[in-house]
């Protein structure tokens, strides 16, 4: 039997805050929960592993310049890479 993950475990596995996960879920960029246990949402471990693998694949397919952008800038579609070194 596959493990179900709580929002806390999903947050830890994806390195995203719980609020960000819920916002992404509403935006349609995060998979919906696979189960509801009472009022609690739960995701199958394989669902989260696939989501992570998809993000890794997207990053690897991105151009080298895009990989140097902060994540927020990539999401916003900005194309200015971050300068190396300290400001």
Main attributes of the structure:
3 strands; Multidrug-efflux Transporter Regulator, Chain: A, Domain 2; 87 residues; mainly alpha
What is the CATH architecture descriptor? Orthogonal Bundle
What is the molecular shape? Answer: elongated
Number of strands: 3
Low-confidence runs of at least 5 consecutive residues: none
Helix coverage percent: 40-55%
CATH topology: Multidrug-efflux Transporter Regulator, Chain: A, Domain 2
Mean pLDDT across the residues is 84
The major pleated sheet works out as: 3 strands, antiparallel
**Helix count, DSSP H or I runs of 4 or more residues:** 5
Task: Write out the strand line-up for the largest beta sheet, numbering strands in chain order.
Answer: 1-3-2
What would you call the structural class? mainly alpha
Top CATH class: Mainly Alpha
Task: Please compute the radius of gyration using only Cα atoms.
Answer: 16 Å
H/E element order? EHHEEHHH
State which percent range the strand residues make up: 5-15%
The tally of structural domains comes to 1
Q: Between the first and last Cα atoms, what is the distance in angstroms?
A: 50 Å
């Amino acid at each position: 039997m596959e493990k179900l993950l709580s929002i806390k475990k999903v947050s830890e596995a994806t390195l995203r805050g719980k609020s960000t996960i819920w916002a992404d879920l509403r935006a349609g960029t995060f998979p919906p929960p696979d189960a509801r246990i009472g009022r609690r949402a739960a995701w199958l471990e394989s669902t989260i592993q696939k989501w992570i693998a998809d993000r890794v694949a997207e990053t690897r397919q991105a151009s080298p310049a895009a990989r140097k952008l902060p994540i927020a800038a990539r999401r916003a579609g900005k194309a200015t890479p971050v300068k190396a070194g300290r400001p």
